[in-house]
Specification:
Elements: E1 5-8, H1 19-27, E2 30-33, E3 37-41, H2 44-49, E4 59-62, H3 65-77, E5 87-90, H4 93-99, E6 109-112, H5 117-126, E7 131-137, H6 143-151, E8 154-165, E9 178-181, H7 184-193, E10 203-207, H8 209-217, E11 222-226, H9 234-245
Length: 247
């Protein structure tokens, strides 16, 4: 069956000429974007209940833009003035770049990984005498605390925000040829919003091993998968699939 409509379970990319724009233009398909999950900040009171005092930390580990936003939001709510001496360990260049929204970049001690948390570990190891705070959501990859514990550094996790399932009830009567997922939470949202969901001819596209497992455990048929050596990005995987079925 040909593909004419795709629903991506994420916000629409803000950049012009994104890979999705090129896919739409080349394959003449309709692509809609709708976050299946969203993030909500927890209150400063909740952070205090986790026995977190921001005065006790000399370094912050930032794994995402959300962690940046919610660390500074909580600091403001607690009336905590972040000292200039604070060290920032950013998982990727994108996170470090986003940090400029809150701090004067050239005047701060910022250490940047390449892409994965594992690539940030050697930098943390160099500064193992610091007291690290990891602001995170209520969901965290098990490998993150595991790697920090193996380093034997002084660190504490703080839940500063939560991943919440979005209300998708307005999509109940809408059908798409392809649904695209990037996390197990997206699969969970689909099933919570539509407990009677039947896949039938709907193709499911998934990114990452944990999403593959969530989809398989839910009894869904996976038709498109990324990353693979041949298709490292989701748009490349979609492109390859569409080219083969839309002949």
């Amino acid at each position: 069956m040909k593909v004419k409509t795709i629903l991506v379970s994420q916000p629409e990319p803000k950049i012009e000429n994104s890979p999705y724009s090129r896919l739409i233009e080349k394959e003449k398909v309709k692509v809609d974007f709708r976050p299946f999950i969203h993030v909500e900040g927890v209150q400063a009171k909740s952070v205090r209940q986790q026995k977190i005092d921001l005065n006790n930390f000399t370094a912050i580990i930032l794994t995402s833009r959300n962690s940046v936003d919610h660390f500074f939001r909580i600091a403001e709510e607690m009336r905590f003035k972040v000292p200039d001496s604070m060290k920032y360990f950013c998982q990727s260049e994108a996170v470090a770049y986003y940090l400029q929204k809150y701090v004067v970049y050239r005047k701060r001690k910022i250490y940047v990984g390449k892409r994965t948390f594992n690539e940030l570990v050697p930098l943390i190891k160099k500064y193992k005498d610091e007291k690290f705070l990891l602001p995170s959501s209520d969901t965290l990859k098990a490998t993150v605390p595991q790697e920090l514990n193996e380093l034997q550094v002084d660190w504490k996790r703080g839940i500063f925000y939560k991943t919440v399932i979005s209300d998708l009830s307005d999509l109940r009567e809408v059908t798409y040829d392809v649904l695209v997922f990037f996390s197990p939470s997206g699969i969970e949202s689909l099933l919570k919003n539509f407990p009677d969901f039947e896949q039938n001819n709907t193709r499911i596209a998934v990114f990452g091993n944990s999403t593959v497992k969530a989809a398989t455990d839910a009894g869904l048929r996976i038709d498109i998968q990324a990353p693979t050596p041949e298709t490292p990005s989701m748009t490349m995987a979609l492109q390859k699939y569409i080219t083969s079925v839309n002949k």
